[in-house]
TrEMBL record, chain A:
Pfam families: Oxidored_q2
Key words, A-Z: Cell membrane, Membrane, NAD, Quinone, Translocase, Transmembrane, Transmembrane helix, Transport
EC numbers, comma separated: 7.1.1.-
Protein name (record): NADH-quinone oxidoreductase subunit K
Transmembrane segments: 14-31, 36-56, 68-91
GO molecular function: NADH dehydrogenase (quinone) (non-electrogenic) activity; quinone binding
High-level lineage: Bacteria, Pseudomonadati, Bacteroidota, Flavobacteriia, Flavobacteriales
Gene Ontology process terms (BP): ATP synthesis coupled electron transport
InterPro entries xrefs: NADH_UbQ_OxRdtase_chain4L/K, NUOK/Mnh_C1-like
Gene3D superfamilies: 1.10.287.3510
Function: NDH-1 shuttles electrons from NADH, via FMN and iron-sulfur (Fe-S) centers, to quinones in the respiratory chain. The immediate electron acceptor for the enzyme in this species is believed to be ubiquinone. Couples the redox reaction to proton translocation (for every two electrons transferred, four hydrogen ions are translocated across the cytoplasmic membrane), and thus conserves the redox energy in a proton gradient. NDH-1 shuttles electrons from NADH, via FMN and iron-sulfur (Fe-S) centers, to quinones in the respiratory chain. The immediate electron acceptor for the enzyme in this species is believed to be a menaquinone. Couples the redox reaction to proton translocation (for every two electrons transferred, four hydrogen ions are translocated across the cytoplasmic membrane), and thus conserves the redox energy in a proton gradient.
Organism: Flavobacterium dankookense
PANTHER family documented for this protein: NADH-UBIQUINONE OXIDOREDUCTASE CHAIN 4L, NADH-UBIQUINONE OXIDOREDUCTASE SUBUNIT ND4L
GO cellular component: NADH dehydrogenase complex; plasma membrane
Reactions mediated catalytically: a quinone + NADH + 5 H(+)(in) = a quinol + NAD(+) + 4 H(+)(out)
Length: 107, 625
């Protein structure tokens, strides 16, 4: 059954997809000025990695990869909570969440 | 009880010092001087007590006050040893010290810093006592350094005069050179025997398993220390300059006591020097040469105190000659008699200077005999003593040195005899120029000529009496001093049996002294010769008058190169080093000011660099694999 899925859609397709998703995330982080978008891009990168983990886990018939994904998702959830809280606080203080406006935080 | 008395003997002058330094300014000058004098008198009386006791039971008094140093197997007590040698020194140090303190009350009366003078003088006596009574070399070294310090303080006592300060510094530095020798000698002994206690070194040396070369080196280093303190060649030049100090200081420190510390030390360590004949030879030769050189310089000096200073160096040379020949008792004998008559001479010259309101040039004196009869007669007696005229004290001690020299080495005897003749000549030159013929000073000085007050003349009279009878302690018949000192000496020095040879030698010495006197008499009384002005002195006399240019030689050899080196360091090396240090700062600053541009607050840039970094790491990992 499991092997069937991989037979239908080959492992290399998963790798291409995750690399694509990861690159989209990187470019989103680099090019967008809106902090929320930057945040979402980071999430895309994380999930790209998660997908790769799961794919390889299936490929190798090893559950360890899926365990990692659970950890990574838990950490990502915590990170989102903290990150959004910071963003809310930034918005209250500056009235915008454009990351260029955060230059004043430098020492 | 005895311990307490010994402590009192040691600390009494120190109490005087504390009082004078802290309260001296608040009390009157008389009280300050009286307390300074009394504390030394207390030490003197206690010395007499201990001396009497030692004479009775013959047992030296030794006490360890506390454990001082304990490092692995090296152990040292802070102890006091009152034996024959140290008591003898104590007696004349505190005795003459008392007289000179008494004298100073009057002599320094017009000085605004009199309390300070007495404080330093007391401190000096304290350190001198420490030097003498210690039961190990390290305690002696404390005193040794302490007297050097006091000497420095007192030479530069009139500190407003820059040459005096220079003289003080010179004395201190010259002494430091010797002290280094002393220290190295001490270290060698400590390394060899793990102790510095006299008795323990003595038994360790006697066991004879020490390396003779190292032992010789230790002895030589100790002798270098003695050279510095006792003004021997080549470290003697500080002593004549030390005459910058007040005259009582010259009498106490630079004639009677401190400069004899070297002789004390060599006598104390006689068991060591006896085993190193080569070093003994060096000592004898250095002593003889010093005696001759200093005496010849003394021939032509015109400053009354300078003559006495060179005479002191010369006499110390004779003492070292005796030490080098193993005749420790003879040297000690001469130390004692010399202390009497030289202190008297210095105090007498002080009286003259006092009478002339600070004039020290003998060319401007003369004819003082009538104005200052007591000063004249006491100085005359001391001069006869130092010249070695029978039966004054100097005759006996100097004669013994000459006899010992004759017994060992004829060349040394000839050198010492020539030095003695010169001594007789320059001392009578001093007397004739100062006290005979007519006065050559200004009319105003002539009006004020007067005999010094009693406080000055009484010490003079006492010292003059001692200069007459001082020889009695070791007359060829009784040899009391020889027997007295026997317990502290290893090698027994045979007393001279009075035979024909001895009488002939005595006769020669006496004739030599008389030749010197007659020579001086002919030149300065009969011809009425007065030394020329400085500019008119030419030829070899000029060389001698300028002390063989030894000071200039030292300046050329040591001071100039040192100054040059310092200059080089200051003008070249220091700026170069500074530049290097500043360079480090500048580079760090530059890196910082460039680096801080990276932190511009642009999150986009941060993220870009972040990604770039990760890419770089990943690429590296791929390549590395």
């Amino acid at each position: 059954m499991i092997e069937n899925i991989l037979n239908i859609i080959g492992i290399e397709n998963y790798i291409f997809l995750t690399v694509l998703l990861f690159c989209i995330g990187v470019f989103g982080v680099l090019y967008r000025r809106n902090a929320i978008i930057v945040f979402m891009s980071i999430e895309i990168m994380l999930n790209a990695v998660n997908l790769l983990f799961v794919a390889f886990s299936t490929y190798h018939q090893d559950a360890e990869g899926q365990v990692f994904v659970f950890f990574s998702m838990a950490v990502a959830a915590a990170e989102v909570a903290v990150g959004l809280a910071i963003l809310v606080s930034v918005f209250r203080n500056l009235g915008s969440i454009d990351i260029d406006n955060l230059k004043n935080l430098k020492g | 009880m005895e311990t307490n008395l010994a402590l009192l003997l040691l600390l009494s002058p120190f109490v005087g010092f504390l009082f004078n330094i802290f309260f001296g300014k608040k009390v009157s000058k008389g009280i300050s001087g009286a307390i300074g004098t009394l504390t030394v008198v207390v030490s003197f009386l206690l010395s007499i007590c201990f001396f009497a006791q030692l004479n009775q039971n013959g047992k030296p008094f030794e006490i360890s006050l506390f454990d001082w140093i304990q490092v692995s197997n090296f152990k040292l007590d802070f102890g006091i040893l009152l034996d024959q040698l140290s008591l003898l020194w104590l007696l004349f140090v505190t005795g003459i010290g008392s007289l000179i303190h008494l004298y100073s009350i009057s002599y320094m009366h017009d000085d605004e810093n009199m309390h300070k003078f007495f404080a330093y003088l007391n401190l000096f006596v304290f350190f001198m006592i420490t030097l003498v009574v210690g039961n190990n070399l390290l305690v002696m070294f404390i005193g040794w350094e302490g007297v050097g310090l006091c000497s420095y303080l007192l030479i530069g006592f009139w500190y407003k005069n820059q040459p005096y300060n220079d003289a003080a510094k010179k004395a201190f530095i010259m002494n430091r050179i010797g002290d280094l020798g002393f220290l190295i000698g001490m270290f060698i002994i400590a390394a060899l025997f793990s102790t510095l206690n006299y008795a323990e070194i003595k038994s360790a040396v006697a066991s004879g398993d020490a390396n003779p070369a190292l032992l010789g080196l230790a002895a030589l280093c100790l002798f270098i220390g003695a050279c510095g303190k006792s003004a021997q060649l080549p470290l003697y030049t500080w002593l004549p300059d030390a005459m910058a100090g007040p005259t009582p200081v010259s009498a106490l420190i630079h004639a009677a006591t401190m400069v004899t510390a070297g002789i004390f030390m060599v006598t104390r360590m006689n068991f060591l020097f006896d085993l190193t004949p080569d070093v003994q030879n060096i000592i004898a030769i250095v002593g003889a040469i010093t005696a001759l050189v200093a005496a010849s310089i003394g021939l032509l000096q015109n400053d009354i105190k300078k003559v006495l200073a060179y005479s002191t160096v010369s006499q110390l040379g004779l003492m070292f000659l005796a030490l080098g020949l193993g005749a420790y008792t003879v040297a000690v004998f001469h130390v004692i008699t010399h202390a009497f008559f030289k202190a008297c001479l210095f105090l007498g010259s002080g009286s003259v200077i006092h009478g002339l309101h600070g004039e020290q040039d003998m060319r401007k004196m003369g004819g003082l005999r009538k104005a200052m009869p007591i000063t004249f007669w006491t100085m005359m007696i001391s001069t006869l003593a130092i010249a070695g005229i029978f039966p004054f004290a100097g005759f006996w001690s100097k004669d013994e040195i000459l006899m010992v020299a004759f017994g060992h080495n004829k060349a040394l005897w000839i050198v010492a005899s020539i030095a003695s003749i010169m001594t007789a000549f320059y001392m009578f030159r001093l007397m004739y120029l100062t006290f005979f013929r007519e006065f050559r000073g200004t009319e105003e000085q002539k009006q004020h000529l007067h005999e010094s007050p009693k406080l000055i003349t009484i010490p003079l009279i006492i010292l003059a009496v001692l200069a007459v009878i001082g020889g009695a302690i070791n007359l060829p018949g009784s040899m009391w001093l020889n027997h007295f000192l026997e317990p502290v000496l290893v090698a027994k020095h045979e007393a001279h049996h009075l035979g024909t040879q001895e009488f002939v030698l005595m006769g020669i010495a006496l004739v030599g002294a008389i030749v010197g006197i007659v020579w001086a008499n002919a030149k300065y009384i009969k011809q009425g010769f007065v030394p020329k002005e400085d500019a008119e002195i030419v030829g070899f006399s000029k060389t001698i008058y300028n002390k063989y240019y030894v000071d200039e030689f030292y300046t050329f050899l040591i001071v100039k190169p040192l100054n040059g080196l310092s200059n080089f360091f200051r003008t070249t090396l220091e700026p170069a080093l500074g530049k290097v240090v500043y360079g480090f700062g500048t580079v760090a600053n530059g890196i910082g000011s460039q680096g801080k541009k990276l932190q511009n607050g642009n999150i986009g840039l941060y993220l870009f660099v972040f990604v770039l970094g990760i890419c770089a790491i990943i690429t590296y990992l791929f390549i590395a694999q």
